[in-house]
Amino acid sequence: MKRPFALGGTLFRTANHLFLVLLSLACVLPIVHVLAVSLSAQTAVSAGEVLFRPVDFTVQSFDFVVHKPEFFVAMSVTLKRVALGLSLNMLLTMLVAYPLSKRVGQFKLRTGYAWFFVATMLFHGGLIPTFLTVKYTGIMDSVWSLVLPGAVPVFNVVLLLNFFRNLPHALEEAAIVDGAGVWTCLWRIYVPLSLPALATISLFTVVGHWNAWFDGLIYMNSLNHYPLSSYLQTVIIQQDLSRSAVTQDEIELYMNVSAKTIKSAQTFVGMLPILLVYPFLQRYFVKGIVMGSVKE
Amino acid sequence: MGRLKREFPYHLMILPGVLFVLLYSYVPMAGLVIAFQNFVPVLGFSKSSWAGFDNFVYIYHLPSVGQVLWNTLFIAVMKIAAGLLVPIAVALLLNELRLVAFKRTVQTLIYLPHFLSWVILAGILSDVLSLDGIVNRLVTAFGGEPIYFLGDSRIFPFTLVASDVWKEFGFATIVYLAALTGIDPSLYEAARIDGANRWRQTLYVTLPGIVPIIILMATLSLGNVLNAGFDQVFNLYNPSVYSTGDIIDTMIYRVGLQQSQFSVSTALGLFKSFVSFALISISYILAYRFANYRIF
């Protein structure tokens, strides 16, 4: 739609474009800077020569990061966590959302069940009671402690149940007349019809499990069981040098790295998968964002 | 009898989800009783002695608790205000763009930080905001003194608010942009015929068009008054900024898991959960009343 601009419109338009370009740069340049540092020689970095382009290009920092045995262990824990978490989360989301999407006439207790789940978004046991529950159920220090406590993502359940509700009822009614049961209706009608929604929720679930770091930090007793995000938290934020320090043998192998270039490389590795998938996450339900505005 | 048989598959379907939520959400809620005990892990819930409200009295008399509560409120309320205003302003500016490709690009770039975890972002910010980081290079280039964003306790809360807005504003614009596309174009036409320029159109057509969603988002954000953002603070703070940067959630963590005062930590958590629950409930009731918003 074309709207005529009043006098001064050109000025406003130019300023607006400029402002939005600067805003976009403010979101991207810090990341570009980190990448540039990670790909530069440490001498150039400590001399403050690196801005948004690598100086004396080298991949030694990345080489160093991925050749740490801890890195591979942590990566494998994360992959296991993502695989288990994604399957369990998606399965339970569908199994819970479908009955809840029924009307009271079809499933009398649906409102009661719905409140049973939604209540957990409003009120929590909190850190210590949850920690103790994980401990007493014997899943401490295993990948299950990262997957089972959040097995039912209530937020996604609500998204999917609202999506299910907006699908035409006639399809299911026709299937029931033809003798289809409840399970058939879910797997053969509702799931195929909501593939785009399910794909979006799946991507968010993967990002969520990839990013989660706190549960690994508190539920894992040994550092070898940390998922990648928790491992990165200890090396990037806590700067636990025992885990990332350059040993005597490595000094000769990696002449171009410093603590700062290593940290940058680790940071970049930690966000790489997200940089690759996030453009596909834009098609999100507005309702979901409104709901997500309450953080707890 | 017929109904029970007909609805039985729904109950069966929802059962696994119910069990997980019962175990990992409701059992911890029951575990809140340790806030009223002198809980000792080896004795368990049943054998630990009762403390009445002693833990709450103890917290009330802690010298730091008033400051922590104030920090939490100050940071959270500033985040809520900035987190509402900035996305609205950016959405209005984006709405003025006519080149779709440019608008898309800007949107894609400003969403990016939302998907990265605070571990990664803290890794980036600790570099970018350091004394010789790129932000301070910009500050000094304009003749200013370098600012210690993460180490100066007077500045730290504002660093938290600004970086939180930086992370979330792009994603939060989605809601407002969706509302903006829903405004009837004929209203603009009518306003133009009445002689309204772009500014007046914004004031009298665009803004009133998104007022309902603004009210909804403002109402729902009420539930975040005690959420100053654990992930962010935990990864960015250090002892030199505890005086202004320590919040309830980080205190719960330190008291509970670092000092192992399980009951005290739980009592503090219960206080927070209780107040948050009241606030979220009020916000949902208000949202339902004034914006006809329903969760499910």
Describe the structure in brief.
By secondary structure, chain A is mainly alpha-helical. Chain A contains 17 helices and no strands.
Layout of helices and strands:
The complex is a heterodimer of chains A (296) and B (296).
Chain A (H helix, E strand, L loop, with lengths): L8 H30 L3 H5 L13 H7 L2 H32 L9 H13 L4 H10 L7 H4 L6 H12 L3 H9 L4 H12 L1 H17 L2 H6 L8 H10 L3 H4 L3 H6 L5 H19 L8 H6 L5
Helix pairs in contact in A: 1-16, 3-16, 4-8, 4-11, 4-13, 9-10, 13-16
Chain B lengths: L1 H29 L6 E2 L5 H4 L1 E2 L3 H8 L3 H31 L4 H12 L6 H11 L5 H8 L14 H26 L3 H9 L4 H23 L9 H7 L5 H4 L2 H11 L3 H30 L5
Antiparallel strand pairs in B: 1-2
Helix pairs in contact in B: 3-14, 4-8, 4-10, 5-8, 6-11, 8-10, 9-10, 10-14, 13-14
Describe the protein in words.
The complex is a heterodimer of chains A (296) and B (296). The model of chain A has no long low-confidence stretch (mean pLDDT 86). Chain A is 68% helix and 0% strand. Chain A is an all-alpha fold and 296 residues long. Chain A has a domain at 69-222 and 280-291: MetI-like (MetI-like fold, Orthogonal Bundle), CATH 1.10.3720.10. Chain A is globular and about 75 Å long. In chain A, α4 (69-100) packs antiparallel against α11 (195-211). With 296 residues, chain B is an all-alpha fold. Chain B folds into 2 domains: 1-52, no CATH class; 64-291, MetI-like (MetI-like fold, Orthogonal Bundle), CATH 1.10.3720.10. In chain B, 72% of the residues lie in helices and 1% in strands. Chain B has helices at residues 2-30, 44-47, 54-61, 65-95, 100-111, 118-128, 134-141, 156-181, 185-193, 198-220, 230-236, 242-245, 248-258, 262-291; strands spanning 37-38, 49-50. Chain B has a two-stranded antiparallel sheet. Chain B is globular. At the A-B interface, α1, α4, α5, α6 and α8 of A face α1, α4, α5, α6 and α8 of B.
